[in-house]
Amino acid sequence: MPERxxxxxxxxxxxxxxxxxxxxxxxxxxxxxxxxxxxxSGHLWATLILSSIALVxxxxxxVTTVPYLTQRVxxxxxxxxxxxxxxxxxxxxxxxxxxxxxxxLNTGNNLLYIIVAAMLAAIIVSGIASAxxxxxxxxxxxxxxxxxxGRTTTGKFEVRNPRKRLPSFSVSVVSLxxxxxxxxxxxxxxxxxxxPGRPEKDQWLRTPDWRVRRIAAKxxxxxxxxxxxxxPYIPPKSxxxxxxxxxxxxxxxxxxxxxxxxxxxxxxxxxxTRRVPLQREITVFPRIEPTDQxxxxxxxxxxxxxxxxxxxxxxxxxxxxxxxxxxxxxxxWKATAKSGMLKxxxxxxEDERKLRIVFDNPSAGQVSEKQYEDALGLAASLAWxxxxxxxxxxxxxxxxxxxxxxxxxxxxxxxxxPEAGASIVDDLPLTGDYNIILTTRPRGTIPTxxxxxxxxxxxxx
Length: 461
What we know:
The chain has 461 residues and is α/β, with parallel strands linked by helices. Helices cover 38% and strands 28% of the residues.
């Protein structure tokens, strides 16, 4: 009960302030009109007093009532607020209204006043109509699950109009511009030396000190979507879809916190945009487009791996009938010719086709940016290739948990950056897998136990 009383008293205070503002503006308007009459009658003091009253009342209303009412606007209304941008057509139209309005004031022609009023009414109608078009529209953005850099993929925009009778016209889904990265103050340790400007060993006094400086914050992640998707007509109680073509040139995390619904309906005087808070993010994997280096080393890797596995012993276990899950390379043609049915050879150790891809992340400055990206692309291409070959894959890298899922490894590579740290080659456990190791370590510092079971790709070479 006390809560209801509080709410009602708050609403009554708002209405009281609003009514007082209306009364004050009405009195100010009347005083302004009477000041015009007294000026034409030649009463100088009356004109001065009335015009002063009008100015003071208008100022009081603007200072006391308008901020109070603005602060009490509902949060939902603030979220539904529209961003306005005047178009070129709107600028030309506004210039015409001003020219005709000046001509009407100078000539006193009633027809010009009517024209100006009609033109101003068109602006008001345009604002109301465009606000109605954007009201209550709902947006859904569907993104693909797996995206690779340099490859075009498709997402979807879905715009729904939940209204029962009113359609929407000429609506575009746009990307909103992000705020630039802001700077903030940072307190850092330093040292005070005297005399300043001399080398440390030549200074008379040197004590610990602090300094405050402004540093740029981490720039926001790149937007997912650039451009616009256009919907000419959205009927009531229906939804329209549009394909979203995506192509990312670089790997990494892309995210977007909001999208915009924009329209110029009906006269294109203003471009109105309603912000739709909708958080989306997508991880772009490194490129898996095979390069010349990939085609050069793949036969060598395959050959060495098969030789390694043969050394482990692929003994014939039995010859059995062919099934749809068997590979054609295991068909025994002699047994097939004798029996008249497809026969395949089954080996005792077919399950040992195990492969581990190791990315030894270098420190900053060891390789150029292009060489680093090429190495990441090669690691991703090898992982993707052997995953399609049904190899028993595992992965290793600094900061990676070791999960055998190829998508988790590609996600790890997508966010990787050069960083100082120990090489993973020294602590690499011997699991019996054949290793493909991408590293910058000199050949002479690699443990000898890895040479027999590994193929090395040296970054930057």
